[in-house]
C-alpha cells in the first residue's frame, strides 16, 4: 500500500518515480493480495500506466514531453531557490535532470496512446 501511495504522490512530485513505485506495488500485490492486484491493474487512472509496462510497451510521446518539461521546470525552480548555495548543488540538479531526460528519451515509444492518461 505504501508503494501505491508514494506512486500516486509521484504523479504530482516530479522527482518521485511514479511508474517504478506502481510496478513494485503490483508485484507485491501479485504475491500477497489478489484483490488489490486486480484493483491496481484495473484502476481507471493507475491501471493503464502499469499495464503498458507489463505488456512490454513503451511510453507515449506526449507523456514523455510532459514529464521532461515538468522535470526541467521543477529543477529550474529548485536551482533558483538554491541560487546562493554551493555550486555543486546546481551541478547535482543538472546531472539528475540530464540522467532522467536521457532515460526518458531512451524509453521505447508506445503506439497505442489513447489508453495512457495525460
Which short descriptors sum up this protein?
118 residues; elongated; 6 helices; 0% strand; mainly alpha
Q: How would you sum up this structure, described in words?
A:
The chain has 118 residues and is mainly alpha-helical. The protein has 6 helices and no strands. The protein has helices spanning 2-10, 18-32, 34-41, 46-54, 61-81, 87-106. Helix 1 (2-10) runs antiparallel to helix 2 (18-32) and helix 2 crosses helix 4. The two termini are 24 Å apart. The model is unreliable at 113-118 (pLDDT under 50).
Write the topology of this structure.
Elements: H1 2-10, H2 18-32, H3 34-41, H4 46-54, H5 61-81, H6 87-106
Helix pairs in contact: 1-2, 2-3, 2-4, 5-6
In short:
The protein is an all-alpha fold.
Low-confidence stretches: 113-118
The count of strands amounts to 0
Count of discrete alpha- or pi-helical segments spanning 4 or more residues: 6
The portion of residues assigned to helices is 55-70%
> Mean pLDDT, as a whole number?
83
Structural class by sheet pairing and helices: mainly alpha
Tell me, briefly, the overall form. elongated
Radius of gyration: 16 Å
Q: Note the run of SSEs as H and E.
A: HHHHHH
Strand content: under 5%
Largest β sheet strand count, sense and barrel closure: none
Amino acid at each position: 500500500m505504501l508503494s501505491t501511495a508514494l506512486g500516486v504522490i509521484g504523479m504530482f512530485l516530479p522527482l518521485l518515480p511514479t511508474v517504478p513505485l506502481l510496478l513494485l506495488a503490483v508485484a507485491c500485490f501479485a504475491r500477497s493480495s489478489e484483490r488489490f492486484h486486480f484493483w491496481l491493474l484495473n484502476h481507471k487512472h493507475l491501471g493503464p500506466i502499469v499495464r503498458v509496462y507489463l505488456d512490454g510497451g513503451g511510453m507515449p510521446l506526449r507523456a514523455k514531453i510532459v514529464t521532461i518539461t515538468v522535470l526541467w521546470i521543477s529543477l529550474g525552480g529548485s536551482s533558483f531557490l538554491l541560487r546562493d548555495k554551493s555550486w555543486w548543488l546546481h551541478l547535482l540538479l543538472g546531472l539528475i535532470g540530464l540522467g532522467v531526460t536521457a532515460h526518458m528519451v531512451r524509453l521505447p515509444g508506445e503506439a497505442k496512446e489513447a489508453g495512457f492518461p495525460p
